[in-house]
Amino acid sequence: MNGINEENNIILKRYEPIADMIHATFGSNCEVVIHDLSNVQSSLVYIQGNVTGRALGAPTTEVILKQLRQQGNEVKDKLGFTTKTTDGKMVKTSLSFIRNDEGEVIGYLGINFDITAFSMVNQVIKEFTTVYDEEENGSHVEESYAKNIDEVFHHLITTVVLEIGVPIAEMSRNERVRFVQKLEEKGAFLIQGSADRIAKVLGVSKQTIYNYLE
pTM here? Predict the structure, then answer.
């Protein structure tokens, strides 16, 4: 039995440099642990970092106990799930089970990353980037933020051409009427000289534009 335990200890110790590397890479928000499941009541045998407040000799978690009870040596790694510590930290966790040469689960390597600050920042960003239209339904509103009125006019023309779905040169009379009416709905005729501009774009007279509006 002691020989088996010694063999397991050798296997678990191989993961210590990996734990050191992970912690060094991700810094103070990261805690990396190695658990020896031969004694679940005092399974924590290696730790780098301090996120969960545990120390060497701490027991394994209820999640692990349940997984082992249900699946035994067929237990699957648990990657990227979130938990909350007793002091309110939000923690993202991944667990990878360690097996001996016979395929028996002897321990696991765990990564606990404190994402509390990230969660708070994410909430702030979400609140700032959520947009609402007049009906408060969260629709996205297109805006060109043009530098001059010519850019505004060009943007309106381009937008309506896309809505009609036909190039100006290929528009039928009915499509031209719709084109002018859509521009009017978008406020194009509030732009000074817009009738002349639109007439020039369509290659028709200014009076024709007014006829289309009627």
Answer: 0.57
State how far the alpha carbon of 104 is from the alpha carbons of 4, 10, 38, in Å: 12, 15, 11
**140 CB-contact burial (10 Å; exposed 0-12 / middle 13-18 / buried 19+):** exposed
Q: Do 34 and 109 form a contact (C-beta atoms < 8 A)? A: yes
User: What does the pLDDT look like over 42-60, one tens digit per residue?
Assistant: 899 999 999 888 889 998 8
Question: Over the stretch 156-210, which tens digit does the pLDDT of each residue have?
Answer: 888 888 888 888 888 898 999 999 998 888 888 877 788 898 989 899 998 999 8
Classify 2-116 by CATH class: alpha beta
Residue 89 has pLDDT above 90, yes or no: no
Mean pLDDT of the chain: 83
The domain segmentation of the chain, as residue ranges, is 2-116, 149-213
Q: What is each CA distance from 160 to 17, 110, 128, 164, in whole angstroms?
A: 62, 56, 30, 6
